[in-house]
Amino acid sequence: MKAQPVVRRGNPGKGFLTYLGERWSGFFLILLLVVFSLIGRNFFAVRNFSNILYFATIYLLLAAGETFVIITGGIDLSVGFVMGLVMVVSAIIMRDMFAAGQPVALCMVVGSIVGLALGVIPGLINGILVARFRVPPFIATLGMYGVANGITLNLCQGFPIYFLPPQVERLGNSFVAYFLPGRGVTFFQKPPNIAPEDIRNIVGIVPLTVLITAIIVAIFAFVLVRTKFGRHTFAIGGSMDAALRAGINVPRHLVKIYILSSLFAAAAGVIYVFRAGIGHFTTISSSYELFAIAGVVIGGASMMGGKGSIWGAVIGVLILNVLENGLNIAGLQAFYRYIAVGVILIAAVVIDQLTPERRTRSV
Amino acid sequence: MSDTVALNKKRHNAGGWLGRNWALLFLLLEVVAFTGMGTHFYSLENIQNIFVACTTILLLGVGQTFVIITGGIDLSVGFVMGFSTVICAKFMVLLLSAGLPEPAVIFFGILICLAIGLIPGFVNGTLVARLKVPPFLATFGTYGIAYGFAEIICNNTPITGLPAGAGTIGNEYFFYIVPGKLFSFLARPQNLTRLELRSMITIIPIIVVIGFVAVGIFGFVLRRTRFGRHTYAIGGSVDAATRAGINIPRHLTAVYMISSFFAALAGVMFVLRYVSGTADAGSSLTMDAVVAVVIGGASLYGGRGTVKGTLIGALIIAVLETGMVNLGIPTFNRYIAIGGILILAVLIDQFFPDLVGKG
């Protein structure tokens, strides 16, 4: 069961069902888009699509980091609370520096960098526990989940951090380009001297946070597929023994993987601060880590390791976010989302089990 | 020469005992530390508070023990508990408005809730055992489904308007003693002056007793019956268990149903104690339950774990929580402490594999 071949690309001899089974998540995403476009008013609109992406950024980053961990056969449950810790710490730094009269740009840069740097620590601890002390990943990261949550709540005393420089939120909600009918496109800034009646007509194209997220995700999708780092990740997940025999320094690689996952969580936290303009802490019932894992698995990764892709995870996360947005627009209560996520997640794994290739493999 | 061997052996035995019982020692250490620092830690009231706090974690933990011994995990328990509080409260309200007498309302409310509580377990078990879905994902799926249904049924607001009698069971004690005046069994004495009320001593909360009876029964099942032996066998090696003729799909389904039954029972306890039902009643308790089981010496790889160990794990968490409240330490720190203890538990397990043994 564990000693599976590393990755297998589809070979031409396979039937239609296998083809469909392997790419069902992509088809399902398209199906969702079509259905919601037909039933939901205002679903099919540039503004709504950029809205979906805008809310998906956090999950995309968490899921991209989680993909690396899951491919090695591990799991990182701490990402949600690491993100919360980073949000609170970088918000506190921005608030205090702003209150001390430092220039706004410096506040933002220092807050973001410290937040990202802080993200290394939980990952390092997780990695050392998993790789050197052989603590099961579930337990090690569950411990970090508690520790990060506790430290966060101590720092913020159970309240969000307010009074950040207002420019933070403005930057986090800006767009790459603005289109005003009749005046053309401007980049990174709203067109100057707009008449008050025109403000409503400005269309923002691609939120800045989405662009940054897309760049980060694309870089690591490349890293996973095309570099030695990525190949080693798959090798460890395919078979730990084989990876060791092949001369990969497995403990060191695993530590790097957990640091990477934690860094992605930190990046998600920094982006969240810019988006919200306040430093939220993570509540237990928000379950960021579980939605990220669900996205990765819907995208075709196996919890056994050795299988998964960043683009799959992106599709998985988009399915969850399109679903939430579409149900919302269709006027259903937000809680139907939880039911839908549960059903799709289970369906994803069952489909994975039933595709012919899988069936022969797992026996 | 032979002396040193004997000495080594003796030391090894002492170390072995330590390794096997470090959780118990840790619990004692915790009690001693809080007694030294805290005020009224040893009061009767505080000790009962600890047991009340531990009951819910213990109930979820015992179900989880069965699942973890088979090598699985049940992430849905916290939200199945919330779902059950909503179902229980909703049915009590419905039956009450249908005009049933109060005891019947409470009785049938609980019964329906426990019966419906088996469904998530059946779904989990079927997915894991027959469709080969990894337990982590199957139970995460039911977690979402249970939470979604619970929120929709209760409309995102706690359900109230339950029969008042429900609260008396959950908040009653076995004995009431007013020193020098009266001694009452099960019934809260009426017509007391305020001074007498304040001096009244209450002993043994009823829900703790109900909880511990259920836990005791399943502790016996795990330790002494064929069902329990089969559970360990599946966790030890699925192949060997299959060859030994155990019907694994059926057994695993039963195990997940036990876990979900305990979650429903914890939900009933919540309703009886707080006389309301809410979807996130148990949201933070899933992790607490897993932590209690792991501190108690179970292995996530299956084949190891005991109900007694889970009891100690649940008590460690409950003592920590109560002690921190007594000392006025912000409760946020409990998360750090529990996370730390969890990692410590596994590290001890890793560093002293021979000492901990297979029990």
Gyration radius of chain A (Cα, Å) is 21 Å
CATH class of chain B: Mainly Alpha
Give the SSE string of chain B: HHHHHHHEEHEHHHHHHHH
CATH topology of chain B: ABC transporter involved in vitamin B12 uptake, BtuC
Question: In CATH's first tier, which class of chain A applies?
Answer: Mainly Alpha
The computed structural class of chain B is mainly alpha
Of all chain pairs, the largest interface belongs to: A-B, 46 and 46 residues
Structural class category of chain A: mainly alpha
Alpha-carbon distance between the two ends of chain B: 30 Å
- Work out the helicity level of chain B: over 70%
Give me the side-by-side strand order of the main sheet of chain B: 2-1-3
* Structure summary, number of beta strands of chain A: 3
- The tally of strands of chain B reads 3
Number of helices of chain A: 16
Strand proportion of chain B: under 5%
Counting structural domains of chain B, the number is 1
Question: Which architecture name of chain A does CATH use?
Answer: Orthogonal Bundle
Quickly count the helices of chain B.
16
Instruction: Determine the N-to-C terminus distance of chain A.
Output: 8 Å
Give a written overview of the molecule.
- The complex is a heterodimer of chains A (363) and B (359).
- Chain A is mainly α and 363 residues long.
- Chain A has one domain (21-356): ABC transporter involved in vitamin B12 uptake, BtuC.
- Helices cover 67% and strands 4% of the residues of chain A.
- Chain A is built from 16 helices and 3 strands.
- Chain A has helices at residues 16-22, 24-39, 46-71, 79-99, 104-118, 120-131, 137-156, 166-172, 208-226, 228-238, 240-245, 250-276, 288-298, 310-329, 336-354, 356-362, and strands spanning 175-180, 184-187, 203-207.
- Chain A has a 3-stranded antiparallel β-sheet with strand order 2-1-3.
- In chain A, strand 1 (175-180) and strand 2 (184-187) form a beta hairpin.
- In chain A, helix 6 packs antiparallel against helix 12 and helix 9 packs across helix 10 (228-238).
- The longest helix of chain A has 27 residues, at 250-276.
- The radius of gyration of chain A is 21 Å and the shape is globular.
- The relative contact order of chain A is 0.20.
- Chain B has 359 residues and is mainly alpha-helical.
- Chain B has a single domain, classed as Orthogonal Bundle (ABC transporter involved in vitamin B12 uptake, BtuC).
- Chain B has a 3-stranded antiparallel β-sheet with strand order 2-1-3.
- The longest helix of chain B has 36 residues, at 2-37.
- The two termini of chain B are 30 Å apart.
- Chains A and B meet through helix 7, helix 13 and helix 15 of A and helix 6, helix 13 and helix 15 of B.
